[in-house]
Amino acid sequence: MTRDGGWKWAPVILLACTAVLASACSSGSSSASGSSAPAVASGSVTCNEVTGGLAFSPPLTVTGTSPETGTIRLHASGCTTSGSSAATVGSGTAAVTLTSPTSTCSGVLTLRSVALTIHWTPSTIAPSTLTFSGYSITTKPAGNGGFSFPDPGGTAKVTGSFAGTDAGASSTAAIYFDPSVAQLEAVCRSSGLPSIPVTSGTVTLK
After folding, report:
1. 55 and 20 part of one domain
2. Residue 175 above 70 pLDDT?
3. Are 114 and 199 members of one domain?
4. In what side-by-side order are the strands of the sheet with 114-121?
5. How far is residue 195's CA from residue 135's CA, in Å, rounded to a whole number?
6. E strand or H helix at 44, and its extent?
7. 26: helix, coil or strand?
8. Is 23 in the same domain as 51?
9. Rounded to whole angstroms, how far apart are CA atoms 175 and 144?
10. Which pick of 11, 41, 60, 181 has the fewest CB atoms within 10 Å?
11. Are residues 19 and 99 in the same domain?
12. pLDDT band for position 31 (cuts 50, 70, 90)
C-alpha cells in the first residue's frame, strides 16, 4: 500500500476504533445503571423458623445490681409472602442491643420497647424496622420458655418492607428457648445466666 493510501484509510480506522470504544463505554454505563437500589416490599411476610440467642453482660443473677446490656441476634428462615411485590424471601437477620438499670434475673422481664431492623435475603428487598411496645413470657406445651411480642394490649409497628396496609400494626413474633422458665431461674440463682439460646420461633410482619 502507498503512503498516500495509508493516510487515506487512517481516518476510517480512527472512526471505527472510536465507535468500538463508545459502544464499550455505553455498555458499561448501562450495566451500572441496571443495578437498582433495594425496593420496599408491599404486603406481608411470615417466617416460621427463628434461631439465634440472647447474651447478657454481666450475667443475670438474683441479686445483680449492675447496669445490664443485653444483645439479641436472630435469624429467620422458612419465609413466605402474601400480597407482596416480593415473591420470594430467603431469610432475614436482625441484631439489637438493649440496656437495663439492673442485672437481676427479673430485670429481663421488665416491660420495654423493642425495635429490630431486619435485613432480608435477597438484598434487593429493603430492610424492615419492626417495633414492639413490649413483650411477655410465654411457654410452649412442651415446657419451653420464651417471649411473645407484643405484650398483651401492646402495639406493633413496621417501617420499610412488609408494612402491610396498617403500618404493621398486626405484626407478631414469638421466640422460644430449650430450657424451661424454671430451669433458667435456677441457673440465675446459682452461677448466673450469661446467655439464652433461641431454638425456635415465628415472626409475621403485616
Report:
1. no
2. yes
3. yes
4. 136-139, 145-149, 172-177, 193-205, 44-60, 68-82, 91-100, 114-121, 128-132, 156-160
5. 18
6. strand 44-60
7. helix
8. no
9. 10
10. 11
11. no
12. very low
Q: Give the mean model confidence (pLDDT) for residues 28-55.
A: 80
Q: Are 149 and 156 in contact (CB under 8 A)?
A: yes
Strand partners, 198: 52, 177
Rounded average pLDDT over 145-164 = 96
Residue count of the chain:
206
Q: CA–CA distance from 15 to each of 11, 72, 197 (Å)?
A: 6, 62, 67
3-state helix, strand, coil in the chain (%, to 5): 20, 45, 35
Number of domains in the chain: 2
Q: For residue 12, is pLDDT > 80?
A: no
- In this structure, are 157 and 85 located in the same domain? yes
With beta carbons less than 8 A apart as the criterion, state whether 197 and 183 touch.
Answer: no
Is the pTM above the cut of 0.85? no
One domain, residues 58 and 160: yes
CA 73 to CA 63: how far, in whole Å? Answer: 26
